[in-house]
Write a structure and sequence with these properties.
Helices cover about 40% and strands about 20% of the residues. The protein is α/β, with parallel strands linked by helices. It has a single domain, classed as Spore Coat Polysaccharide Biosynthesis Protein SpsA, Chain A (Alpha-Beta Complex), CATH 3.90.550. Helix 2 links the parallel strand 2 and strand 3. The longest helix is centred in the N-terminal third of the chain and has 20 residues. It is globular, with a radius of gyration of 17 Å.
């Protein structure tokens, strides 16, 4: 049995968590079907372990996540995104997962997200550094135009996003996993992987859609990036949310 783990940290995401988890379940079904058809050069049966880490949630995130079949919900006190991601990863490792895929609870993954990561694992890559696309429904027209002008399909920029990151378990363990950082734990992990000589692949083959909100669950993160873009474009209201 070949297992791949999906880790989703969540802090009060009752509005978006179900959309995220259902997209992951669809990707899991696609991965299992694709592997069965030998589409990724494997003959093993593939099982996907989906882990939602509810990090100090005070809303209905836990109840909603438990209502999605196939999701293992791990409830913790408020430990922060780095520690939450690490707890989920260690649970996936204990389940025998050879690859760990990460996304965020305010994101939606494409149906071939895990199938592509299985393919990359089979080809010997140690990590996939995937791209993200903000939900255009959350952006102003100038922000949409800016995003399209600065993102050329087929040319991933290599920016690290926890919402679209995959790593080989052996490589993850070798560099010590996620650190208990309040933010940028994803960048920190990739920096250590790169320093270790791991094979890293920036890719926009399976781009993840993430929330375009300006107020995130950490001080910076992607929400902070969108605030900076809004400020650059002169949108004072969006920049100061």
């Amino acid at each position: 049995m070949r297992r791949i783990g999906v880790v989703v940290p969540a802090r009060d995401e009752q509005e978006l968590v179900e959309r995220c988890l259902r997209s992951v379940i669809v990707a899991a079904s696609s991965a299992a079907a694709g592997a069965a058809e030998a589409a990724v050069e494997v003959v093993e049966v593939v099982e996907v372990v989906v882990i939602l880490v509810a990090d100090g949630c005070s809303d209905r995130t836990v109840a909603i996540a438990r209502g999605v079949p196939g999701v293992d919900v791990l409830v913790t006190p408020a430990v922060g995104v780095g520690a939450a991601r690490e707890l989920g990863a260690r649970r996936a490792i204990a389940a025998g997962c050879s690859w760990i895929a990460c996304t965020d609870a305010d994101s939606e993954v494409p149906s071939d997200w895990l199938l592509e990561q299985l393919r990359l694992e089979s080809l010997g890559w140690d990590a996939m550094i995937g791209t993200v696309r903000p939900d255009f429904a959350d952006l102003t027209p100038p922000e949409q135009e800016h995003w399209l002008a600065t993102h050329q399909p087929g040319h991933p920029n290599g920016h690290v996003h926890g919402a679209n990151l995959g790593v080989r378990t052996a490589s993850f363990v070798r560099v010590g996993g996620f650190r208990a950082l309040p933010e940028h734990e994803d960048n920190d992990l990739v920096d250590r992987l790169r320093a270790s000589g791991a094979r890293l692949l920036p890719s926009d083959a399976v781009e993840v859609t993430t929330s375009g909100r300006r107020v995130g669950r950490t001080a910076g993160g992607y929400a902070g990036h969108l605030r900076r873009v809004a400020a650059m474009l002169g949108d004072r209201d969006a920049a100061t949310v």
